[in-house]
């Protein structure tokens, strides 16, 4: 979905760290790299578990702070789920999310018709919209099949 190459994104990340006066550490780079390759919208905990395989000394606090910094810089995107548990993905083009209420899997989908719709007047009188994302919750096919057994 219009994703930039990983190398290019890692170079952008280094630029942003420099701008913000943050040290470019191996840990920060590995956290971002993990998110760039993830397709399952991992939670902080999940990112931590994965990066820890390669960097056993990493702390969950570092993962929290790095993800928060990346989100503020607009390099990653946070998806608010029903359980209030934040899930993250690298910013990768306009898309929406399907969230299963049973297994909590987050899946991407695109909806061009929705993207092209003008927001209703209430939105214009409210202010300036900077993004519109749809989250559809329900029960995924796998969970439905599991229930039938
Ligand atoms: Zn499910
Ligand atoms: Zn997504």
UniProtKB/TrEMBL annotation:
Binding site for Zn(2+): 100, 103, 140, 143
SUPFAM superfamilies: Winged helix' DNA-binding domain
GO biological process, one term: regulation of secondary metabolite biosynthetic process
Sorted UniProt keywords: DNA-binding, Metal-binding, Repressor, Transcription, Transcription regulation, Zinc
Cofactors, names only: Zn(2+)
Annotated signal sequence range: none
Domain of life: Bacteria
CDD domains referenced in this protein's UniProt entry, alphabetically: Fur_like (cd07153)
Cofactor note: Binds 1 zinc ion per subunit.
One Gene Ontology MF term: DNA-binding transcription factor activity
Record family assignment: Belongs to the Fur family.
Protein name: Ferric uptake regulator, Fur family
Organism: Desulfurivibrio alkaliphilus (strain DSM 19089 / UNIQEM U267 / AHT2)
């Amino acid at each position: 979905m219009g994703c930039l190459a990983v190398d290019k994104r890692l170079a952008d990340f280094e630029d942003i760290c420099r701008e913000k006066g943050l040290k470019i550490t191996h840990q920060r780079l590995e956290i971002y790299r993990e998110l760039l390759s993830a397709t399952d919208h991992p939670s902080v905990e999940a990112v931590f578990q994965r990066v820890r395989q390669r960097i056993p000394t990493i702390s969950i606090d570092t993962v929290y702070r790095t993800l928060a910094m990346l989100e503020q810089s607009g390099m990653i995107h946070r998806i608010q789920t029903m359980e209030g548990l934040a899930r993250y993905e690298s910013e990768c083009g306009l898309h929406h999310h399907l969230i299963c209420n049973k297994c909590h899997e987050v899946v991407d989908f695109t909806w061009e018709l929705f993207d092209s719709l003008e927001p209703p007047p209430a939105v214009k009188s409210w202010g300036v919209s900077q993004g519109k994302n749809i989250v559809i919750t329900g029960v995924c096919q796998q969970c439905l099949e599991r229930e039938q057994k």
